[in-house]
Amino acid sequence: MNRSWGVRLSTTAAASALSLAFITGCSSSDSDKKDTAADSKSTPTAAAAPAAKASTAAELKKLLLVAGDVPGYAVEATEGLVPRSKDEQKVDKAACGPLVWSSLALPPGDTTVSASNSLKEEKKAGGASKPTDLAAALDATRTLIGLSSYDGDGAQKAMKSVSDAITTCAGGYTATSSSGEADNGKVVKVASEKGTGGGDEALAFVETVEMEGQTATVHGEVVRKGNTVATFYTINFAAFAGDGKMPMNPPAIVTGQLTKLK
C-alpha cells in the first residue's frame, strides 16, 4: 500500500492529526495546412483559441474549501501529514503513480502547481461514554482534497493517466517512502466505480488494501474542471479495524469543492 493515510499514526499524534502515510491524447488537425515553396511565412489561424494557462499555487489555495463551506465538517491543513512532493514516494510500477498521487493530494499529472487540505467530519457530542482521544481520532471520517492546475491540455492528460492506471494497476501495486522506511502493506486490487461525478470529466476508483493481516477498501475520485484537477480520498481508521469498508467520498464535499472551481 502506498503511505498516504497513517501507518505512522501514533498515540500522541492521533489526538490532533493523521499522518497520511497509510494507504497509501490530445490530437491536433491541420486540414487547411498547405506547403508553399514561394512563401516560407506561415499565416496564423484567426480562429485559434489561446492555450489554457495554469493557475498559481496561491490561486488554487484560495479555491480550497474553508470552514463553513460544507456543514458538519472541519477543515484541517495537510502540512506535515502528506509528502510535499512526488520525490518522497517510490512506486514499484511507474504506471500506478497517478493513483498514488491522487491518494496523497499531489498532482496526478505533470505539474508542480498544487494546493491541498483535509475535511474531517464533526461528530455530535453525546453517548453513554466519552471516547479516548485516540479512539476519537481513529473513528473520524477524513477526506483529503488536492487541487492541481495545468497548462494547455495537461489536465486532460492527467485524467487519462489516472484512467490508464486504474486499468493497468488492477492487480495492485506497492509504494513506499523514498527514505526507505519499511512498509507493511500494499494495494492488492484496483477497480473503477461510480462516484459523485461532476465537472468536465470525472473518474472514481476503489482500492483493496492489505496491511498486517487486515483488508480494507478505500475510495478515490478525480475530477477535472477546465484545466484544474481535483482529487478526493476518504478514510476512517475505525472502519479499517472493523469491517474494512471505508466511507465513500462525501458528495457534499465533492460538489462543494467543484462549485468553487472556476
Q: What key phrases describe this protein's structure?
A:
globular; disordered N terminus; alpha+beta; 7-stranded antiparallel β-sheet; single chain; 262 residues
What would your notes on this structure say?
There is one protein chain. By secondary structure, this protein is of the alpha+beta class. The protein contains 7 helices and 9 strands; from the N terminus they run ααββαβαβαβββββαα. A hairpin with a 2-residue loop joins strand 7 and strand 8. The two termini are 34 Å apart. The relative contact order is 0.20.
Gyration radius from CA atoms, angstroms: 20 Å
Distance between the termini: 34 Å
Strand order of the largest sheet: 1-3-4-9-8-7-6
Order of helices and strands: HHEEHEHEHEEEEEHH
Largest sheet: 7 strands, antiparallel
Q: What are the SSEs and their pairings?
A:
Layout: H1 11-14, H2 57-63, E1 73-76, E2 89-91, H3 97-103, E3 114-121, H4 133-138, E4 142-149, H5 154-168, E5 175-177, E6 185-192, E7 201-211, E8 214-225, E9 228-235, H6 237-241, H7 251-260
Antiparallel strand pairs: 1-3, 2-5, 3-4, 4-9, 6-7, 7-8, 8-9
Helix pairs in contact: 3-5
In short:
The longest helix has 15 residues, at 154-168.
